[in-house]
Amino acid sequence: MFSSALNIAPANALVSEQYHYAYKQQLKVLENYTAGLRRLNVADSIKRLLYPFLPKRLQKEESFPVLFYLSYGSAEATGSSGFVINDLLNPYRIDQYKYGMLAAHEAFHAVVSIAFQQNLKPNIDYNTAEFSLLYFLEIISEEGIADLIDKPLLLQKRSPLYKEVSAMVANDETLAVASIKKLDSLLSHAYNNALALQPYTSFSALANAFGKNGGHIPGRFMGNVIKKGGMLSANLERVENPITFIEAYNKTASLSPKKYPVF
Ligand SMILES: [Zn+2]
């Protein structure tokens, strides 16, 4: 069921062309899938997967994001500031396995990013290196929790993305440990001298130098350490605060026999 039509496009087709080809091949099933999203109430499935990772105050109908399903052009999804945009083919493949799971990860971003924004001081200057740093830490902490929603399920043997996701996380610990040490060094320098942030005034400069995959590294590793250390539910109370995520990581990592680095 998941061996989608991706491989039947002409062999010399570009990846994006193959993806469009797969859409064309599966147009009928995608139409049925789209109709089913309402009928089967995908929002309910998303809430079941999402709410264990949100505090009660954010489990409200008015906080729940608007969901868009459309032809995105590549196997992607994104969520922020109250909305989730899904590429149609990608969640179709994943929803056959766990209905609403991809959107649940993105819905977490959509809900928590608004809560984060609401906690910022009024009139904050978004163009400063300090804000970029805070935002980078926020994305690390969001990915750290959001990846606990879908990755453990995608890493089960019967998952349609078992191979892809297993390969993706294979070096998580090594990469995250290196990234945490580097980021900690930046934070220490910046604490003593604000100029230390000058080479990294944008989010992308920070994300490229101190993380990978848009903050999934080191976030996913940190979230797993927190969960294994039994501190996840305590952290969820202030889930939109990246500093509590780092503190929870520090506590659990320092108790771990593995001697993981802390901030
Ligand atoms: Zn994410």
Note down, in words, how this protein is organized:
- The chain has 263 residues and is mainly alpha-helical.
- It folds into 2 domains: 1-119, no CATH class; 121-263, no CATH class.
- Helices cover 59% and strands 5% of the residues.
- A 3-stranded mixed β-sheet has the order 1-3-2.
- Strand 2 and strand 3 form a beta hairpin.
- Helix 3 packs across helix 5.
- The site of zinc ion has 4 residues, from helix 5 and helix 6.
- Residues 105, 109, 143, 146 line the site of zinc ion (ZN).
Lateral strand order in the biggest sheet: 1-3-2
Average of the residue pLDDT scores = 91
What is the number of beta strands?
3
* Category from helices, strands and their pairing: mainly alpha
The rough form would be described as globular
- What does the largest sheet look like? 3 strands, mixed
Helix amount: 55-70%
Quaternary state of this entry equals single chain
> Which strand-content bin applies to the residues?
5-15%
Bound molecules: zinc ion
Q: Total domains, how many?
A: 2
Query: H/E order of the elements?
Result: HHHEEEHHHHHHHHH
Radius of gyration: 19 Å
Task: Give the N-terminus to C-terminus distance in angstroms.
Answer: 45 Å
